[in-house]
Amino acid sequence: RDLPHVVTIAGRRRYLSSISADTAGMNERGRLDRGADERKAVNTVCQGSAADIVKQAMIYLHSRLSPLPPARISINTDADAAAAAATTVITAATAAAAAATATV
């Protein structure tokens, strides 16, 4: 509540106008806006940090899979299925990369 912004784990900032405002002089609408901004702050940290993690995982996978011969690889980034699918894809990709490295 002291700063006018929130920060994700990768350092991205989202500025929220009424998050650091003093509620003493606010009318009902101002207090509602502040409450909405507080909810946005929590969601931004959670969802933004999750996006940062997925981005880093995709960068890592790209760096590991780029030397391999072209293959049809589908990575599902749908929010509902991401947790289960990411574990499966990362495990399969790591195994494939290890197998390809071992045979070279």
TrEMBL record:
Any one Gene Ontology BP term: double-strand break repair
Name the record gives this protein: DNA-directed DNA polymerase family A palm domain-containing protein
Residues in DNA-directed DNA polymerase family A palm domain copies: 5-66
Gene3D superfamilies on file: 3.30.70.370
One function term, GO molecular function aspect: DNA binding
Pfam families named among the record's database cross-references: DNA_pol_A (PF00476)
